Known about the structure:
Belongs to the iron/ascorbate-dependent oxidoreductase family. The protein has helices at residues 11-15, 20-30, 41-49, 63-66, 82-105, 116-125; strands spanning 32-35, 57-62, 69-70, 72-76, 134-138, 143-147, 158-163, 171-173, 176-181, 188-192, 199-203, 206-211, 214-224, 227-230, 232-238. The chain is an alpha+beta fold. Strand 12 and strand 13 (214-224) form a beta hairpin.
Amino acid sequence: MNAQLRPGPDTGARLQAYDWVRIGDELDAHGCAMLEALLSPPECAKLASMYADDGRFRNRVLMARHGFGRGEYRYFDYPLPELVAGLRGAVYPRLAPIANRWNTSMGLAVRYPAAHAEFIERCHAAGQRRPTPLLLQYGTGDYNCLHQDLYGEHVFPLQLAILLSEPGRDFSGGEFVLTEQRPRMQSRADVVPLRQGDAVLFAVHQRPVQGTRGSYRVNMRHGVSRVRNGHRHTLGIIFHDAT
């Protein structure tokens, strides 16, 4: 396993504190699930402070320039910060069985290996070699349009976002929003009430929903509503790499 993919010494232990059966049930029912207080306030502050360190990132994206919204984000370069790499490597094995179950239900042939390093090797062999974990930064009036983080042929169907700022103190507004589009139905929105250090797991692209005639696919998108005032930072952990 590459050094940048090795979980930190306490990452697995902190994940054991969560009820992963409940998390799986919530992902099945709603396409998202919260992990409250995944990071401590000092960890959040340390990660947010990295945004100004050019040497940690491979590029910077101004959302308005590409029609993505307003605000900006930066993709980390390898090697990833230890905490980011630890979370990426330790959360993935808990999600791979859910991802495989979803694909089975949706009639998709793709299956995901148990270890994240093996999945990253698959991505790299297909030319998806650029790391995708990122920091996002929003100011007053900024927002993120509804979107999907796909990046290439190999897409892991779940991802993780962690709020690094404290609502009501650092910013107001800026809610995390999910929408789902079911066949022949209007879109449904879900607002996830995150506090500093809380994480949300959510579907990247599609998820299965059980209907009267079996499972069908629901299309998912996510974004961030307008920040009313202040500054908001988020850590995004995407489990596949990019072309």
